[in-house]
Structures are given as structure tokens and as C-alpha cells.
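Usage

Read records sequentially. Each one opens with the input sequence:
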Amino acid sequence: MQDDDIANIMRALGHPVRLNILRFLASQQQQRECCCGDVTETLPLAQSTVSQHIKVLLDAGLIERKPHGTRNRYMIRHDRLAELGTAFGGLLDGLNFQVPHKEAEPA
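and closes with the structure output:
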């Protein structure tokens, strides 16, 4: 996963509503797919606002859309989340964090 991909995904995850949408989609494991109306019912937002947040998640590649009659169904892309987890592990390892040692205060 490239740095641009990671940054794009992080922007998508940077809004609490989008995190809620992902949690909702993840909770629908038996259905595996939900329409925008299903998501809208769980949030105190207008359908158009939820659609905009879904579009951001789609553009980041975190969810996918499948046409279903006159509606679209959405589902989480577990492969992308796994790639992100792997990239994060490498990213954090590559940053080489070092906690500075606190000097002892004179007595």
C-alpha cells in the first residue's frame, strides 16, 4: 500500500460518522450488504448526508457497491482493511519511535 493510499484512507476514517457507518456495516455480517437506507435508519442524519459519507468511504476503497435492482448495496472491503493493518504495522515500525529518557532531577 502506497503512502497516498494510506493518507486517503486516514482522511476517510477521520470523521466519526464514517467510523459509525463502517461499524454498522461490520455488524451486519449475516446480511453482508446494506443499502443506504439501512445505514440512514441508524444515524440522526439526512439520507443525502449519509450518501456523501458513503461516497467518501467508496472513494477510499474501504467499502464496495453492488447494484441490486434499483438500489445499491454496500459492504466492507475486508481486504483493504487488512492491507491497512499491514501498512500501519510497517509504518509504525519504520518510524522508529524512541522515548526520551527523563533526566533525574537534582535532590
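Summary fields computed downstream for this record:
- The CA atoms of residues 99 and 105 lie 18 Å apart.
- Residues 3-93 form a domain with the Arc Repressor Mutant, subunit A fold (CATH 1.10.10.10).
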